[in-house]
Amino acid sequence: MPRSSPRWMKTVARSETGHSKGFVVFPIRCAFSGQAQKRRPYVLPKCYQCNHLFAKEQAESMRTQVKPQRGLSAIRPYVPGKPIEEVKREYGLTDVIKLASNENPLGASPKVLAALAAALPELNLYPDAQSYTLRQAIAGRLGVAFDQITVGNGADGIIRELCVAYLNDDDEVIVSRSSFPVYDISVNVMRGKLVKTPLTADFRFDLAAMAAAITDRTRLIFVCNPNNPTGTIVTADEVEAFTTQVPDHVLVVFDEAYYEFVDAEDYPDTLRYVREGRRNVIVLRTFSKGYGIAGIRLGYGVAQPELLAPMNAGKESFPVNRLAQVAGLAALEDDEFLHRTLAMNRAGLAYLYEQFSRLGLKYVESHGNFVLLDVGPAAPYVFEALLRLGVIVRPCTAYDLPHCLRITVGTPEQNARFIAALEGVLEV
Ligand SMILES: Cc1ncc(COP(=O)(O)O)c(C=O)c1O
Fold it and tell me: Residue 31 pLDDT more than 50?
């Protein structure tokens, strides 16, 4: 760097383009509020020879006068499980397993794969916007009417549609702490107000606390059952007592993404409320878990048609793509695959419980295809050490459970590899 350069320019590196990196500091406005940032001036790397900004796009987006919608500033972005390819690249590994996103370790059903292959030549055609055949098939399966089914881009898509349909600014939405963070995002997008109730001491949803939190401004309550990431359920009796306390202006959303995995006899039959004509209940389910097609994005909701109408009004023109409709139909035809999935999950959970007990580790018994493991304050280090051994699990800091890891039940081989890695890490 020439001696005459101002002191704020400091060469730190030479980029691949041959530009020398210096730093320039200038005041910048917050992209959300438009407020000038007084305390911490933003620092941008800049070439001292030609003024090329290394972070040009970033600089430009920060300087725009076009203000984003203010609900977005409250969002803590959803952090998905680390992708296998990224871990391979970062740690120089060739053999990595992922037990971080509650995916189906058996893959997808062969019937689904065959149906998808047969559907490929028609990709030039738009899908059926109404998903008529698929909705008929789901309705037939559940014993409800066709117009009581809505399908979407995953259960995530339906959660978004629900918030778009039912939330105005500052409407209250009751969710539990340590639950699925996608609710928070969609509520914030609509500038709703999140009201969070604690879990019970045994990591279950506290429905009494949720009922007590209802006000005139409450619009939605999300009951995640089984709950992600704790794997716990609320029972039929608890749900019955709860629903009698919920006023008619409040919509109760039972998110049953993992319902296929539940064996408990006291698990509630929430579809009963829909069949009985209750106009403030919706049940959400997904093809991502038991049916193993998370990658294709397909979920559904079951509710009275009057409740679905505003959601349908706000839908995208083609909310479920052609392949997803084909895959969903084929998945419903493959009970054998679903049963294999459930049997493997049951055996996997039993194995993991046994191993955790042997290692003296605390865990929460799960009704899903994952289990919450308490490894104490060292959880971030255990997570990182497992990554280095090629095992991706999910840290639970974003779920307000910083001492815990969430482990998806894998194949027997994957489970054994995870336990061997965990044992090695904990002994260090
Ligand atoms: C509780 C819960 N609800 C909904 C979803 C989203 O499901 P989908 O893949 O259908 O969007 C998940 C996915 O992990 C989940 O855990």
Answer: no
Give the N- to C-terminal CA distance of the chain in Å, as an integer.
47
Return the closest-CA partner of residue 287 out of 315, 309, 258, 307.
258
Q: Is 180 in the pocket of ligand 1 (CB under 6 A)?
A: yes
Handedness of CA 90, 94, 95, 97 (dihedral sign): positive
Considering the segment(s) 110-334 as one domain, its CATH architecture is 3-Layer(aba) Sandwich (3.40)
Delimit the domains of the chain by residue range: 13-68, 78-105+336-427, 110-334
CB 100 within 8 A of CB 398: no
Q: What is the pLDDT of residue 75?
A: 84
CATH superfamily of 78-105+336-427: Aspartate Aminotransferase, domain 1 (3.90.1150.10)
Peptide bond into 310 cis (omega under 30): no
Number of C-beta neighbours around residue 179 at 10 A: 23
| pLDDT tens, residue by residue, 72-101 | 888 887 778 889 999 999 999 999 999 999
pTM for the whole structure: 0.86
| Tens digit of each residue's pLDDT (9 = 90 or more) over 255-285 | 999 999 999 999 999 999 999 999 999 999 9
User: Would the CB of 288 count as within 6 Å of ligand 1?
Assistant: yes
Give the distance (Å) from ligand 1 centre to CA of residue 370.
13
- The CA distance from 232 to 362, in Å, is 15
